[in-house]
Fold this protein.
Amino acid sequence: MMRPSLNDLAAFAAVANHQSFRRAADIMGVSRSALSHAIMGLEAKLDVRLFNRTTRSVSLTQAGARLLARLDPVLQDLDQALDTLSQERGAPSGSLRINANKSGARILLTDVVPRFLDLYPDVELDLVSEGRLVDIVEQGFDAGVRLLEAVPKDMVAVKFGGDVRFIAVAAPSYLEGRATPHTPDDLDAHCCIRQRLPSGKRYRWEFSKRGAEVAIDVPGNLTLDDNDLLVQAAVDGRGIAYVPDHFARPFLKSGQLRTVLDEWCPTTPGLALYYPSSRHMPSPLRAFINLLREVDRSQ
């Protein structure tokens, strides 16, 4: 039996852990065809089939599952050994993949990423911004960024950026001649700019006041899926939007927007960077978290 290379084994582990040639190829930065050829070459060297493949799915054979169970700890030990060497050099290196929502990505790009890249030029940072909540382990990310309340319970969370307040806003031109809403029920008489969540569901506006909490599927003839677009539609007089306050702040200062239902819009816990507690923390992620905490304390 020919001894496989480390690259072959790493390719096998990537496909096995993600159960997808496409995802593994994206993470490894190679083409799907190249990865497929590497796996076929590995199976030929070992003279055993490692995966069951169909046009829609890929799964491990019994032999593949046994190999992965023995191989994963070895690769993790290797990563840790290389990471220790990087720490001894005094400068983290390698890659760091973070999945973030748009709000989180914006804050990181403004306050943290520029300093991080200046301090650690040997780290390649891959910041993916998307609205849907993904399984960061399955998708090959080192960490994720979401609202603290949306962080999975089995993850370690590092809060940053302060609290967040969702506010209801509208243009003066829209409010002129209309009764200003004073309770969430008053929104029934208004045109609201609704939001479509990445899951496909429409967001129910959530309000609270002195312990009373309500969630409303507001009326309206326009639905959007991006906070910047919601704010722009409100500025254009299309109705009332409900967005995180930092998206609307410039337009509130300029007078292009006004708030309504202020007493029903409390502050909630903000964003958090999160990562799996069960895995060894690579040095780029450790450095990023340390800098994140430092920046957050200074603000």
Notes: The first helix runs from residue 6 to 18.
